[in-house]
Amino acid sequence: MSEISEEQVAHLANLARIALTPQEISSLTTELDQIVDSIAKVQQVATPDVPATSHPVPLSNVFRPDVVGETLTIEQALQNAPEHDDNRFRVSAILGEEQ
Amino acid sequence: MSDIIRLTAAGLAEKLQTREISAVEATQAHLDRIDAVDHDVHAFLHVSNHALDAARRIDDRRTAGEELGPLAGVPLAVKDVLVTTDMPSTSGSRILEGYMSPFDATVVKRAREAGLIPIGKTNMDEFAMGSSTEHSAYGPTRNPWDLGRIPGGSGGGSAAAVAAFEAPLALGSDTGGSIRQPAHVTGTVGVKPTYGAVSRYGAIALASSLDQVGPVTRTVLDAGLLQDVIGGHDPFDSTSLTDAWPSMAEAARDGARGDVLKGLRVGVVKELSGEGFQAGVQSRFDETVALLTKQGAEVVEVRAPHFEYAVSAYYLILPAEASSNLAKFDSVRFGMRVQPDGGGTVEQVMAATRELGFGPEVKRRIILGTYALSAGYYDAYYGSAQKVRTLIQRDFDAAFAQVDVLISPSAPTTAFKFGEKLKDPMAMYLNDVATIPANLAGVPGISVPIGLAPEDGLPVGIQIMAPVREDARLYRVGAAIEALLEQQWGHTLISQAPALGGK
Amino acid sequence: MAKDALMDYDKALELFEPVLGFEVHVELNTKTKMFSHAPNDFGSDANTNVTPVCLGLPGALPVVNEQAVRYSISLGLALGCSIAPSSRFARKNYFYPDLAKNYQISQYDEPIAFGGSVDVELPNGRLVTVSIERAHMEEDAGKLTHVGGSTGRIQGAEYSLVDYNRAGVPLVEIVTDIIYGAEADAPELAKAYVSTIRDIVVSLGISDAKMERGNLRCDANISLRPRTPEGQPPAPLGTRTETKNVNSLRSVERAIRYEIQRQAAILADGGTIIQETRHWHEDTGRTSAGRPKSDADDYRYFPEPDLLPVQPSAELIEELRAALPEPPAERRRRLKAEWGFTDLEFQDVVNGGLLVEITETVAAGASPAAARKWWTGEISRIANLNGVEASALVSAQDVAAVAALVEAGTLNDKLARQVLEGVIAGEGSPQEVVDSRGLAVVSDDGALIAAIDDALASQPDVLAKIRDGKVQAAGAVIGAVMKAMRGQADAARVRELVLERAAG
Q1: Architecture of the domain delimited by B3-275+285-299+399-491
Q2: pLDDT band for position B423 (50/70/90)?
Q3: I need a surface site. Which of B135, B355, C291, C324 has the fewest CB within 10 A?
Q4: Rounded-to-integer distance, Cα B207 and Cα B318, Å
Q5: Integer distance in angstroms from the first to the last C-alpha of chain B?
Q6: Which residues in chain C are contacts of B375 at CB distance < 8 A?
Q7: In the predicted model, is pLDDT for residue C247 greater than 80?
Q8: pLDDT of B503
């Protein structure tokens, strides 16, 4: 049922912000098709009556009191930045609009 | 080879406490060993420049009469997935080359507070994606038992480091077997604690609902000592359990001493045997089962009908969570930045960085995870996988209603050769068939060495699994099996590992 | 920016029915952020209110702020919502440089509150019940500054700078159901709805609710559907646009009116509406095209694995319900009575969105009448002139201080207006402006009498008229005296004194 196309992989790469090469798109298309074929078997037993589990050990209401704690110094905040202007991280011009 | 490095962590700790050995001596011995053999093994991505200073401080405190923790002064290797303030943290990826964290992972912080000496960061598959360390961006780690073979993965560096006596203790992380499978193929001990028993804060996330940090050691007792240091509630990790835990070291001592196997109800998981399992792995496992029976354990076969869907569910849940967890590597706040030819927008810079910064396996899984979550496919893939997770938990519940522990071989094969499974991702994925169910259900698991496979002379491990929160049971039973086998052999398994070259 | 064709508003309403929907984001005023113990402070130096969580550093993990959950439940209850016995967080995945992790922690299919309604009173007295689909918790993004290019906007910028101080500030997003039947009142309804939400969050004390600071933000969805002759089924819903960047009550109203006129012109011309975001430009009073909706908007929501479900106990919900302030409609009725305003006066206040300001000004010691006079009068006038929100100009404390100065006779109305001007211009507190500009009225009768005597002496004919009983003639003298005093006198007192001196 999978039959993944190269267009689809290119679209996924765009969603995942990875500039895949055409060769990578082509080989990934083949690999994903095989992988998805084999993992699609989860659908055989995932019937509507079975609830989904997202946490292996159920907990709830894990909260933190609203109390200010230690923050990073500006040096720590910026120490790994590829580029910054004074206190701010610098990035190239943005193409897309804000979400 | 210095005797110091041959000591178990517990043994070394004792000599440190009696001041027969100083922390500086212990640390220097291991640094020398790394110097001598790591060129061949390549367990380490970084060796600490601060270890001797830290050791000196421990010695000073001890001299001053300060009461120190039981492992104070014992060197510790740290998987590179855990962030550290005094060493780079790369998670085996180019994209994080040279990254310096402004904070320590909670487990590292606790280890330091307990006086352990972090001596270096160990190699791993990039972002813990793999079962062989062949996916490390910095080259593979070699198995000390046979340098032409893989040390397992993703935590091959930590397992190889303890197997090669470069460190008595190491920290690992286990998302689908990354602690237990390397232990299996290197003749060492690895524990994946109950999900939430050990803090994930500061562990660079692969799949948040599966990841668990745990000990990598040469003995069950050493693992217990280390889990006692790193475990317990951490308010910085919402999924951290608030339970009061018993001492795992005590449980291990109890197991090694006593007759815990008598009357123990042991379930052999039917689905984790037979086809796909190497003959020598199966035969060593069967012998261990016979030994357990002889010791008075009630061994029964247990069915876990949904385990056959575990690998599939895992390879949907893991990539899905990973695709989101790894989105933060975008070249804005930290990490590598690649400027495309002729400049480019921030979107293009991000895409170019991620193209060059991530290796092929990481890209494969990000794309797969993006697919599994995308509109129109969520229910069929991610949603279904989360349901399988429920079914696997039910299998565990049903099994643990009958037995105290479940056992299986820790992995279907012994260490394979480099390149053997690189071309076939699914074959690589299937190497985790025995370990994955525990991660999906959150239950704890341990791998303990049980001998060498007759056909290749390589180590084999047994996996023991217990119900959620029953980590102590693993240590009790694991230590009992370890003690029995060593008594039978007259030596430890790791002592049979080939001597490595060097000084 | 090309000018859009606009249809006459009344004509547009004849042809089409406006269909509305609102998403209002409320920034909560907790001490710390939603998922990190970093301070939730406005106006700090860039990237100083950050922790590893805010920057999305490797290994960092979120932990939910309990106060933010309590505030969200209170808000849900005040909106008449049911509180979910179990709700959870989800990740909304998209890449953007202001989003540190490149996913936003939000709520998706299991919001904390759902199914409420709010009564909204329009200026014409009409009461509209707006039903609330849901209110959910999420985190704010960081702030981008676009550098280079001519506009300071994203288009044409050379590069951008990112400050993550705002990243992770707790938000509640309130989503309405589709609103039909607003008809010609659509713009007023929009404004009144946002104003009502603002009143609610302020009375709950859970947000500073300053629109100009982005504490309260409204995204307005608008579509038009053609009217069909009576007896025929209604036409299907039209394509909607989502107008963003609407940062004042006034612009909410204007933006809706603009979109209705713009869409009507396109549809009447046989064109089609593109499903897109529109950006409101306060300066030009127009909207411009933003991001079109496309399949790139695949947010790949999934349950946030780092966080656990929120399952408030019935006791907690009842505790918070019991602590709710009175509902807005009731509150308005009470305030109107307490303040003694006429219907017209009170309507003026409500329409100006000034309930909060007047409440605060009265709390700061001013009389209700004085508070109303200054807020609906001079301050609103200056605000309208500059196209900003009245509340952004001056604080309630300052207005109360001005009123007190008038009350004490230190200022007359004219001077008080100048003082307000000074305060708005940033010259300091009212007292500081009085001092620095030397604006106090001359309360020394001696100085006034001297000026009056001078004026009377130079206008003997006027003096004669006053003495003949033609009191209105005194105006000329009063004018001359006020001029001589450069306005810094109490005109009533001058009048008294003029009559006294003339009577001689």
Answers
A1: Alpha-Beta Complex (3.90)
A2: confident
A3: C324
A4: 5
A5: 7
A6: 295, 298, 300
A7: yes
A8: 42
Name chain C's partners: 3 or more CB pairs within 8 A: A, B
Tokens of B469: 């929160």
The three-state secondary structure class of B20 is coil
Within a domain: residue A11?
Answer: yes
The count of CB pairs under 8 A between chains A and B is 181
Question: Domain map of chain C by residue range?
Answer: 9-295, 328-437, 445-503
The Cα of B347 is separated from the nearest Cα of chain C by a number of Å equal to 8
Among B139-143, B310-314, B363-367, C292-296, the least confident range? C292-296
Number of B/C CB contacts below 8 angstroms equals: 101
Q: Give the DSSP per-residue string, B355-421.
A: HHHS-HHHHHHHHHHHHHHSTTTTIIIIIHHHHHHHHHHHHHHHHHHH-SEEEEESSSSSPPBTTTT
Contact check, Cβ <8 Å, B103/C59: yes
Lowest-confidence region among A48-52, C21-25, C32-36, C210-214: C210-214
Distance from CA of B16 to the nearest CA of C (A): 33
* ipTM score assigned to the predicted complex: 0.97
Token pair, residue C361, equals 């000004």
**Which residue, among A11, A12, A42, would best test binding to B if mutated, counting the most B CBs under 10 Å from its CB?**
A42
Asked about B374 being catalytic, the answer comes back as no
Nearest to C58 among B204, B237, B374 (CB): B204
Tell whether A88 is covered by a domain.
no
Query: CA B232, CA B221: separation in Å to the nearest integer?
Result: 18
Average pLDDT score over residue span B28-56: 98
pLDDT digits (tens, 9 = 90+) for C382-440: 988 887 888 888 999 999 999 998 888 888 888 889 899 899 988 889 988 888 887 77
Catalytic, out of B22, B131, B178, B408: B178
User: Which CATH fold would you assign to the domain C445-503?
Assistant: Arc Repressor Mutant, subunit A (1.10.10)
